[in-house]
Amino acid sequence: MAITTSHLGKNDRLYRFGGEEFVLLIPEMSEQDEFIQNLRMTIKKELTTPDGKEITVSFGVAPWVPGTTTDTWLQRADEALYLAKQQGRDCAIFSKE
To answer: For the chain, what is the largest distance between any 2 Cα atoms, rounded to a whole number of angstroms?
Structure first.
C-alpha cells in the first residue's frame, strides 16, 4: 500500500476491500485516465510475485454520480473490474455512468 499512498493527494483515501481488492477514493480529479494509468504502471514497476514474476494490475473505475448510493457506486466499480479481468487483465476499465 505504501507504493500507492505515496502517489495520492492529501484528501485521497485507500481502503482494502477484500483479499486483493482495494477502494481508492479521490475527491477531485481532472485527468482520471492519466492518473489511473500512471498508478497502474507504478504498481507494476515496483511489485513482483514472490518468485520475481511480473504482476497484473486491473482497475474498475466508477466516478461518483450525484444521487448514487454507496452500494450502486461500488457495484459499478465492481462490474468495471470484472470487465477488466475478462478482457485479459492488466488494464483499467471506466464504468459508464
So the answer is: 45
Cell of 86: 475478462
Task: Render pLDDT for 38-69 as a digit per residue (tens, 0 to 9).
Answer: 889 988 988 899 999 999 999 999 888 889 99
CA quadruple 46, 49, 53, 58: dihedral, nearest 10: -70
Name the 3-class secondary structure at 59: strand
Spatial distance between the Cα atoms of 28 and 30, rounded to a whole number of angstroms = 7
Single pTM value for the model? 0.80
Residue 49 carries which side chain, given as an amino acid letter? T
Residues 6+ apart with CB under 8 A from 39: 4, 7
Has residue 1 got a pLDDT over 70? Answer: no
